[in-house]
Amino acid sequence: MRIATYNVNGVNGRLPVLLRWLEQTAPDIVCLQELKAPQEKFPEKAILEAGYHAIWNGQKSWNGVAILSRLDNIQEVRRTLPGDEEDTHSRYIEAIIDGILVGCLYLPNGNPAPGPKFDYKLSWFERFKTHAAYLLSEEVPVVLAGDYNVMPTELDVYKPERWLDDALFRPETREAYKTLVDQGWTDALRKLYPDEVIYTFWDYFRNAYGRNAGLRIDHFLLSPQIAPRLKAAGVDRDVRGWEKSSDHAPVWVELSALVWNSS
């Protein structure tokens, strides 16, 4: 099984890129972020014609998340992150697909920091950690995929000295991610490639993609019930170089089939 995550940076404006990538790679499950489209403007027909069912939580002009599946069904569990009934940002959606609970997230950017946006980022992170701990307590296969807007270590950012005051790299953000992972999650890419430079985002400015001046901010966290099934992971880096592409590249994991122990 292949599960992918992709911050599309506008699902309608990037629809040709999204459909081309889906046709070429055919992931079984896809988490999308930054739809930048209200609920009624999600391109459901085009997604269905590409062979995918979808659930989504849209929002006009910004945010928005979706889960696509070419498997039989998507059982929606929730479309908001618990902990703040007044939070209207469309940043989280969760579903069960083929026995796996998939959480798709778009964590707040938080800039400028310090400030109210950074405070919101950290408070959202705390809510997310609380919910992640609850999911672990359920002892079921869980995949938490999306744009976390955090570079966990210096290995995950080009020229880290230039990012010290950025909300994506501030000590508070990195510590929040570390305490999340330390709950018992496996960072899929780092599990397989602990020492490699891997980026998932390249800014549109200053030829960042051409210079490979990137960031690793799109992550897969796997619960202990599914982490042993991890057999491959990677970044479809070339997609970032396509015409009118997102500033993110798709990230994916390959999971082996579930093997039942009859003993």
From TrEMBL:
InterPro entries hit by this protein: AP_endonuc_1, AP_endonuclease_F1_BS, AP_endonuclease_F1_CS, Endo/exonu/phosph_ase_sf, Endo/exonuclease/phosphatase, ExoIII-like
Q: Residues in domain Endonuclease/exonuclease/phosphatase?
A: 4-248
The entry's Mg(2+)-binding residues are N7, E34, D147, N149, D247, H248
Which top-rank group of organisms is this from? Bacteria
User: What's the cofactor?
Assistant: Mn(2+); Mg(2+)
Top EC class for this record: hydrolase
Q: Which GO terms describe its biological process?
A: DNA repair
Q: Which PANTHER family match?
A: EXODEOXYRIBONUCLEASE III
| UniProt-recorded name of the protein | Exodeoxyribonuclease III
Classification lineage: Bacteria, Pseudomonadati, Bacteroidota, Cytophagia, Cytophagales
